[in-house]
Amino acid sequence: MLWLFGQLGPYKRQVTFAMLALIVGAMSWLVLGQGVKYVVDQGFVANNAQRLNQLVLVVIGIGLVGSFATYFRFYYMIWLGERVSADIRQNVYSHLLTLSPSFFAATRTGEVISRFTSDTTVLQSVVGMGLSMALRAIVTFIGSLILMMLTSHMLTLYVLIAVPVVLFPIRIFGAKVRVYARNSQDRVADVGAYIDESLHEIQTVQAYTHEQIDKQRFFSRIDGVMEAARKRIQFRALMIASIMGISLLAITLVAWLGAQLVLNSELTAGELTAFMFYAVMAGGSVATISEVIGEIQKAAGASERLMELLQTDSTVQTQAEPILISSKVRGELKLEQVSFYYPTVDETPVLTELNLSINAGERIALVGPSGAGKSTLFQLLLRFYDVQQGQITLDSLPIAQLDINQLRQQFALVSQESVIFACSVFDNIAYGRPNASKDDVIAAAKAARADEFVSEFSEGYETQLGERGVRLSGGQKQRIAIARAILADRPILLLDEATSALDAANEVKVKLALDELMKDKTTIIIAHRLSTVINADRIVVMDKGKIIAIGTHQELVQSNSLYRELAELQLIS
Prior knowledge:
Distance between the termini: 53 Å
Mean pLDDT: 79
CATH class of the largest domain: Mainly Alpha
CATH superfamily of the largest domain: ABC transporter type 1, transmembrane domain
Oligomer: single chain
CATH architecture of the largest domain: Up-down Bundle
């Protein structure tokens, strides 16, 4: 809870306003009891009707002050709850973008998202309502105890007459609150969907070093939530203030009616005073404190879950003083005695004492059965994981000593299962280079043979593709992903059989584009088709985490039985 309330630190001015409003509001209700006392002593007892009417106006004035103070207390406390919740979401999301895929392999994305939604909502409620209610109830309860002297029968019948009037602001402002609450929830749902997508595709986000851009897009959505929440808070504050003001006015009028009964000797002044103040305020304060204690207990658990996320360190870290790449990367890669196992599974080696040198501009094809370690090699090159033994170098520089962002900016990745985001065609292609012009994006799409189907869409490059690219076929998704890599124009290409989802006609077109793309670039291809490996400079045959043969297609057909078998099966695995 100290951590939670520590989040209020940057908003000292708003906290001060809220506390002042709280104190003024609570004191006005307590002073109201003194006003009642003077009404009794100087109006009832003295039988002075003129003085009585004057004091009734004073009491109404005190009540209005309390109502205004309640509005500001309610507004600022609810705003603080929303703001703290938004800050926590921003901090947690920014931190999650830095975590390695090993965290997401061990943690369900849905569980993480629930912490963004349900847990932060609990904290928002405690800061916005619970804290305010608790402080007000404590001040009121203490004041009630000090001022409480006598009790009396309550004039319940008179109070019930005011109920229909109290329902009026609920009907007027409540309708507005419902509209803005719906809008606010829709925006929160949009935030949740964005979180789910970006974290689900975290490898693509990190491979293209898109963390800062995703962070800014997420922040803009959070600002939209805050704007929707501001209007909802405003009308809710008006509703609460109006209800309290009308209630106070009603009680005051009931008291005035009771005063008439006192003047007529039908009630005693003590009975009226007790009804006006002590019994209601003391009992209500105790009930409020009891309710808030339960909310604080829920908030403590929610805070703990969120702190867990914030305190989780990435298993892949940039060194304090990383080696910076100062010149253009040639693309020479070398693996020396590399052994690796996934830390989230067990210590069974996925790669064992791997040695491989890849020259700058060379095309290497990786072939082998499923589980041979081909995809793992891609993940190690991008430093999604660190090796347990050996080292990988880029242009003779150990990648473990390079800045992670700089390292990943040397690679363009095209996965076998193309990643399409729920945005426009333009934004999907520009993901590879966010500052690219429209002409650059169109040129990349043409090179990937994607322009021919994009131009048929009614909205062209502004066409929204839907979640996971539901509006595209498998081949179209693949060509969008290839266009993204072409636009990125990075010195090293990692292609996980980039033509696997294409039919024969489209495959020929895209291969021409890939041939152009691969010129003067180091290219590593996970190959599943014979037509892919034939054009490689060298073929690396892998099995059970080891390299068992390296050579050209003709050499391996003659010298390696596993490769010969894979070739006969068209290398499909």
